[in-house]
Amino acid sequence: MHGAILRVTPDSSIRPPSDLNVRYGEERLPRYTSYPTAPHFSNAITPHTYRQWLAAIPQQRTVSLYLHIPFCQSMCWYCGCNTTIVRRNEPVAEYLAAMRHEIDMVTDHIAHVPRVDRVHFGGGTPTIVTPAQFADLMTFLRRKFTLLPDVEVAVEIDPRTLTPEMLAELGASGVTRASLGVQSFDPVVQRAIHRIQSFEDTAAATEGLRAAGVRSINFDLIYGLPHQTVASCVDTVQKCLQLRPDRLSVFGYAHVPTFKTHQRKIDEAALPDGAGRHLQANMIACQLTQGGYRQIGLDHFALPDDSLATAQAAGCLHRNFQGYTTDASDVLIGFGASAIGRLDQGYVQNDAAPRSYRQRIDRGHLAIRKGYALTADDRLRADIIERIMCDFRVDLAQVCARHRTSPEAVLRSADRLNMLIADGVVRLEGAILAVEDDARHLVRSVAAAFDAYLGTPGPVYSRAV
C-alpha cells in the first residue's frame, strides 16, 4: 500500500451548481479528443485514399500506434466502447491473425520502416489475449516497425481478469504504462453497472504491475453512475489514494441507450441529475488535489513529477483519442475493428464490427470504412480547441499567425462566444481568451464556440458536466 487516507468531510469544499452549470452543463457536447469529431466522418474517405496518405508519411516522422482489442469476458452496462463478449479464445486468435495481416498491408504502403515512440493497446480488454499471444504481437510489431529505445507501451487492463502469467509477460514485453478500470468501489454502484470489482483485486493488480516493472499506473474513475453519491465518490477516491496511481482519468457517465443498447439495463431513475453530477465531479477533484495530484485539463489528474504535469506546466500538453497526452505526433496509425488513425491529411476509421473487419482483411482489403479530410479551417479550429482544452486559455493571435489568418476572422464566426463572455464563463483581453477559474468545468462549452460543425447537440454526445 502507498500513501495515507485523506479525511475530508464530503460536503466541506464544494459549492452548489450555479445557473451557469444548469445552462451549460446539461448540453450534450463532444469531448474534443479530435476535431472534427468522429460523427462527422464519412465514406468519402476510401481505402484508396488511405493508401495515398500512408505513402506520404515523411521518413523523418515518428509515429504512434493504436491497437484495438474489441473483446471482453462480460459486459459492463455503462460501457461506451466498441466491444464484444467472448467465452473462448478462438475468436480472439482469429482476430489477432487478421490484425497481423492488416499491419502487413498497412506497412506495405509506407515507403520506409516507420519509427515508433508510442504504442497503445485499447479495448475492450486487451489483456483478454493470452500471454503468448501478447508476446507474439509485440514481437511482430518490433519486426514491422522500429520501436525506439524509449518507446512508451501502454495497455488498458481489467484488474478482475489479470493473471500472474499476464503480469509477467507485460513486464517482459516492455509495457511502461497500464490503465486500470476502477469506476467505483461502491458495491451498490457496482451491482447497478454489472461490474463487481473489489478493492483487493485492484490493489493486487496495481502492486503486481509495479513489481513487473510497469513504471506508470493510471486509474479510470466515473461519476454520474446509477445510485452513485458524493459520499461514495469520496470513499472511492480515498481508496485510490492508498494505492497512489501516477494518474487518474475521471469521466462523466454518458448515458446513450439509443446507441449502446446494453445501457438500457441501467435504471435511469437511479442516475443523478445534473446538479448531482456536478457535486460528484467537484468532490472527486477536491479530494484528488488535496491528496497531492494536479488537475490536468478537464478530466485528468497526475502527480507533480508525472510527465502530464510537467507538459502542462510547459504549455505542451496535447489531447487525442486517449485523452490528455504528451504525444505530439501528427501521425497515429490505428489497427483493429473501429480503430481511428490520424495522418497529416486527415482521419481514418476502420469497420467497427469485428466480423466485417476480419472479412475485409481476409479479402486483402484495408479495413477503412470512413474518415475525414482536414481543411485549412479545420486545422486552425483544431489548434484553438486543443489549447482551450489543455490550457484553459489560448493566444488567438499566436495560433492564427501559424495558420496565416487573423483573430478577427475567427471571432466573427464564433457567435456563441459572446454569450459565454457575457455570462462570465470566459474573458477576452486583446487576443487572449481565458476560461475563468470557477468555470473550468465548462471548458467543453467554450471549445464548442469554435466548432463549426456542432449544430444542434445530439444524444450521441455526453453531458458537458
Key descriptive features of the protein:
9-stranded mixed β-sheet, 465 residues, disordered N terminus, single chain, globular, 2 domains, 3-stranded antiparallel β-sheet, pyruvate-formate lyase- activating enzyme, 16 helices, Arc Repressor Mutant, subunit A, alpha/beta
List the helices and strands and how they pair.
Blueprint: H1 19-25, E1 28-29, H2 47-55, E2 62-69, E3 71-72, E4 84-85, H3 90-108, E5 115-123, H4 131-144, E6 146-157, H5 164-172, E7 177-183, H6 187-193, H7 199-211, E8 216-223, H8 230-243, E9 247-252, H9 274-290, E10 294-296, E11 300-302, H10 307-314, E12 318-320, E13 323-325, E14 332-335, E15 340-343, E16 346-350, H11 354-362, E17 368-373, H12 376-391, E18 393-395, H13 396-402, H14 407-412, H15 415-422, E19 426-429, E20 432-435, H16 443-448, E21 462-463
Parallel strand pairs: 2-5, 2-14, 3-4, 5-6, 6-7, 7-8, 8-9
Antiparallel strand pairs: 1-21, 9-11, 10-11, 12-13, 15-16, 16-17, 18-20, 19-20
Structural account:
With 465 residues, the protein is α/β, with parallel strands linked by helices. It has two domains: 19-333, pyruvate-formate lyase- activating enzyme (Alpha-Beta Horseshoe), CATH 3.80.30; 376-455, Arc Repressor Mutant, subunit A (Orthogonal Bundle). The chain is built from 16 helices and 21 strands. The protein has helices at residues 19-25, 47-55, 90-108, 131-144, 164-172, 187-193, 199-211, 230-243, 274-290, 307-314, 354-362, 376-391, 396-402, 407-412, 415-422, 443-448; strands at 28-29, 62-69, 71-72, 84-85, 115-123, 146-157, 177-183, 216-223, 247-252, 294-296, 300-302, 318-320, 323-325, 332-335, 340-343, 346-350, 368-373, 393-395, 426-429, 432-435, 462-463. The chain has a nine-stranded mixed beta sheet with strand order 10-11-9-8-7-6-5-2-14, with helices on both faces. A hairpin with a 2-residue loop joins strand 12 (318-320) and strand 13. The longest helix has 19 residues, at 90-108. The radius of gyration is 22 Å and the shape is globular. The chain starts with 18 loop residues before the first helix and ends with a strand.
